[in-house]
Amino acid sequence: MERAGELVQSVMSGQFELRKQQNIQEVPYSNEDNQNFACSGGQPCIRKTKIQECPLHRDSNSSYTSSAGQQNQRQQSKLQEIPLHDGDRQNSGSSRENSGSSGQNSGSSGQNSGSSRENSGSSGQNSGSKGQQNRRPQHKFQEVPPASDQQQHSSSNPYAALVDCLRATWLTGKTRPMEYRKTQLEALSHFLEENETDILHALNVDMHRPHFEGYVTAISTVKNEVNYALNNLCSWMKDECVEKSLATKLDCAFVRKDPYGVVLIISPFNYPFHLTLIPLVGAIAAGNCVIIKPSELSRCSEKLMAEVLPSYLDPDTFAVVTGGSEPTTRLLENKFDYILFTGSPPVGKIVMTAAAKHLTPVTLELGGQNPCYVDCCCNFQNAANRIVWAKFFNCGQTCLAPDYVICTIETQERLMPCLRQAIREFYGCNPQDSPDYGRMINDKHFQRVSAHLESGRITIGGETDEHDRYIAPTVIADVKEWEPIMQQEVFGPILPIFTVRDLEEAIQYINSKERPLAVYAFSCDNKVVNRVLDCTSSGGFCGNDCLMHVTLVSLPFGGIGHSGFGHYHGKYSFDTFTHERGCLSRCMGLEAINTIRYPPYNQRKLDLLVSTTEVKRRGFCTLL
């Protein structure tokens, strides 16, 4: 083995001297600007494709929109108030709905994508020359008709031309330079700044969203994401050098951050701007072309994004598709390179089925029943304040809201008056008159959530007004495990309290259910909080508070199991929409070192190959 080491060392030494003479540097490729799609020798890797004029703009009733028809006119006019009526009862393929509600999938179940689009631009062309036909006379191939499956699909699917147009743009490499990505991100920031009043007005019309809650979720958090991406985009895009073996010590090994291509973002009604624009930030930062599909249930917000946002972003790389479940189903028939969906688990399964036909990777954020454990040793009023704020924020229509409180009977008796006091302080004696309390999105969801008032014993609230779509902040005690409110996500302003004997039974109950999007634990004893953290599984966790972990751009946001998979926010958004491409660049010379892996094989070559590629074990590490 010593001789093997001497041989490798001598070869390495000779290789180093030769590389020194050739003035070869061992610096990985830069990923800045246009260098991201340059091959060795400076030749472009990506064929420059002439983009045909895209039919992206239609009349005012168009189902998809770009800025081509807007002529970059920034719309500053006030949105007209659109009353919500019984038409809102229509189900949405992109809205978040409870898995137990009847008819949830009526708009999209069974309408999975049809024939997959094939990317063979040469279908129907001659496959060989005369010489090839003479060499293989026994095979007779039928002539393929000029109309390929792709062309037939394009003529039948209303969104095929849109997707093809964005893909043609992406193939030119237009979205890859860092400066282009920054320009688009800054344009998105301008959209937020110049249309702040209209955005907040749209949210208020759709859901009676208070100005405070609207600004925090639709303006502030999205701006933070944009600024965080602009501050770090240069470092995110750089090639990442990786550890090398002895055999590749003089080579260049790195991970390149490539965009996926054309991505689709489908968002729900509860936070139309937040849950649409934050993924959009990551998709743009990663260098993709993007189609967004907002929920039709939040009508004013959808209208604003469809009519105004395209005038800020590049029409060649961005589009908005509007409509209900039928347009969403037809849109999913097309081949995308990545899909991010936020909504209910049943609709998430439909999206995943459609994506599977094209082997398209997906991120699903699906929600679930988020437990909130309250220990007997805690500041009950502080815990009640934080629970009430998180639960009744946006009228309970938050995927991360605590779905139920789990505690002992003794803790319930001490917590209940604190919950009552917090509700009174936040929303007054009559929350319906409070400007800080929202409403249900439509009549259908009002009826669904109101049905849960039949469960358990109402101790706080319980009042409703169907005409106003108002459900008072409500707390229910003495609920049973088998009742519907404990079997499905509430997604409304009703907080049930489920009692157990002790902490261990609480953990056992939490683990007996599907893994949620978040787990919360309140206690003055850190051992209790850590016990809940260590013994449960969820998309996220927050100790002694609720929702606040999602405000950090440095933390990933996403689910696990039934609550979804994949994550985004901050750099995690960039990584989600980025393909990490493993690369190794080697020298064409110094073939002597490669002979150890060529036939004819012998034991000496095997020993040398193993010794130069071996990964050796290190000492054990300890967690601090």
From TrEMBL:
Family: Belongs to the aldehyde dehydrogenase family.
Gene3D superfamilies: Aldehyde Dehydrogenase, Chain A, domain 1, Aldehyde Dehydrogenase, Chain A, domain 2
GO MF terms held by the record: 3-chloroallyl aldehyde dehydrogenase activity; aldehyde dehydrogenase (NAD+) activity
Region forming the signal peptide: none
Domain of life: Eukaryota
Annotated Polar residues bias: 61-79, 148-157
Region feature (Disordered): 56-157
GO cellular component: cytoplasm
Protein name as catalogued: Aldehyde dehydrogenase family 3 member B1-like
Gene name in the database record: LOC129324255
Gene Ontology BP, a term: aldehyde metabolic process
Keyword Glycoprotein carried by entry: no
Ranges of Low complexity composition bias in the record: 90-135
Keywords (A to Z) from UniProt: NAD, Oxidoreductase
Domain named Aldehyde dehydrogenase: residues: 174-579
